[in-house]
Specification:
mainly alpha, two-stranded antiparallel ribbon, 61% helix
Length: 155
């Protein structure tokens, strides 16, 4: 699966700094965190997700916005941004909203919550994987293949 996800590291090169936007960074961060969540749950179930603490938000800087998103932020991203795209592309908006709700309400101390998340995620893993691929491609085209990035019009 990882080989199908675009490489976003060129965004941090000096040549791309002038076109780089905080929004792009945030969206890429959410996408990669969702990919990590997907890999953990599909590889080792909710047990691995809990063992690796994939549900926890991690502060990585001095700014409030410098975090690795936790389950609540990923659920919001999945239930808003990605569910709309899934609705347009695959006519499958509702399953992603349901998964987002399970992820949002996930409680590592509640066995029923754990089982519900794993069951719902595994049932929809192909849709989740497809939307990750699609959004990766979208972000890549918008922020990496900007046709105006190297022209004088890009300021």
């Amino acid at each position: 699966m990882q080989e199908l996800i675009k490489d976003f590291t060129p965004l941090i090169t000096s040549g791309k700094l002038r076109v780089q936007q905080r929004d792009a960074q945030d969206q890429i961060g959410y996408l990669l965190s969702l990919l990590n969540t997907h890999n953990l749950i599909t590889t080792g179930g909710v047990k691995l997700y809990m063992d690796k603490k994939g549900y926890e938000q991690i502060d990585i800087g001095l700014d409030e916005e410098d975090v690795i998103p936790g389950n609540v932020q990923i659920a919001t991203f999945l239930g808003t941004t990605l569910s709309k795209i899934a609705g347009e592309a695959f006519d499958s908006e509702e399953p992603l909203r349901e998964i987002a709700d399970l992820l949002y309400r996930f409680n590592p101390d509640d066995k029923a919550s754990q089982e519900a998340l794993e069951e719902g995620w595994m049932k929809n893993q192909e849709l989740i994987q497809d939307i990750i691929y699609l959004y990766s491609e979208y972000l890549y085209r918008v922020f990496m293949q900007d046709p105006f990035a190297d022209s004088e019009e890009a300021v």
